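step=encode ok
step=design start
structure_in=
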């Protein structure tokens, strides 16, 4: 196509566009005294006006979508913040509920054993958990009547014994410590079998060692303190037998004990100040 023809086409398109715009403007004017020609033009221009109107609405909707998106983003951020706040509040309520249940169980235990023990409630304020030692620190000390070798328990069972006392705190070695040793017996048969020792802080299980090969023990049996070691009172629950195996040489055997106490979730405990009588 030559330049002249291109210029002619452009000129014709511009003229048609101007006429259409003029026609649209002319036909949108509200007058009652329209001439026959104007009425005809309005009929002809009606589809064009509709097209222009729809195009304008779409353009307006397109740009309006950006405004709606920004608003939706803002509302979404606000909702996410509310969800996070509700989640934190829910966790706090769950913690408070669990603490309430735990303290209620401990209070019931203290009341139930009031004829057997004089107990002092204490809170765990620190923990030393490494390959060499597994101890906790309690917020009770000599000012509260605490002494070395006092036994520490909770409503589930045996925890350990006091090994170091300061005026307002004390250190407790847990029965999971490798150096810990507790005289024990089977609750079902009342047979005194041997010593329960810790397997180290990396392992929460205990080990009942040096049992006679013909010892009357089965998986599922309950293990309690025997009271024969001179430190731990008789009848304190320790755990349940989960495995039995022969020791080296086959003359004796040992058992793996799953303790009743969860040593990774110790928060409140009892220190036995005075043992008033024998356990079960």
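sequence_out=
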């Amino acid at each position: 196509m030559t330049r002249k023809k291109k210029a002619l086409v452009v000129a014709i398109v511009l003229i048609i566009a101007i006429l259409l715009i003029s026609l649209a403007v002319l036909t949108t004017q509200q007058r009652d005294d329209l001439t026959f020609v104007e009425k005809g033009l309005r009929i002809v221009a009606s589809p064009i006006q509709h097209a222009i109107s729809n195009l304008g609405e779409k353009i307006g909707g397109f740009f309006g979508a950006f405004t709606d998106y920004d608003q939706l983003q803002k509302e979404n951020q606000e909702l996410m913040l509310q969800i996070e706040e509700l989640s934190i509040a829910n966790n706090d309520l769950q913690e408070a509920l669990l603490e309430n249940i735990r303290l209620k169980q401990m209070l019931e235990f203290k009341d139930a054993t009031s004829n057997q023990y004089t107990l002092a409630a204490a809170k765990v304020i620190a923990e030393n958990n490494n390959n060499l030692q597994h101890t906790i620190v309690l917020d009770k000390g000599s000012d509260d009547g605490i002494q070395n070798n006092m036994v520490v328990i909770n409503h589930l069972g045996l925890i350990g014994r006091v090994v170091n006392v300061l005026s307002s705190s004390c250190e407790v070695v847990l029965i999971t410590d490798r150096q810990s040793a507790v005289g024990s017996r089977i609750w079902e048969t009342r047979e005194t079998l041997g010593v329960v020792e810790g397997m180290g802080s990396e392992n929460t299980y205990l080990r009942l060692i040096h049992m006679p090969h013909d010892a009357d023990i089965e998986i599922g049996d309950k293990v309690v303190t025997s009271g024969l070691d001179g430190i731990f009172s008789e009848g304190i629950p320790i755990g349940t037998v989960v495995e039995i195996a022969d020791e080296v040489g086959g003359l004796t055997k040992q058992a793996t004990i799953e303790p009743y106490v969860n040593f990774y979730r110790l928060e409140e405990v009892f220190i036995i100040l005075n043992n008033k009588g024998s356990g079960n």
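step=design ok
step=annotate ok -> The chain has a mean pLDDT of 79.
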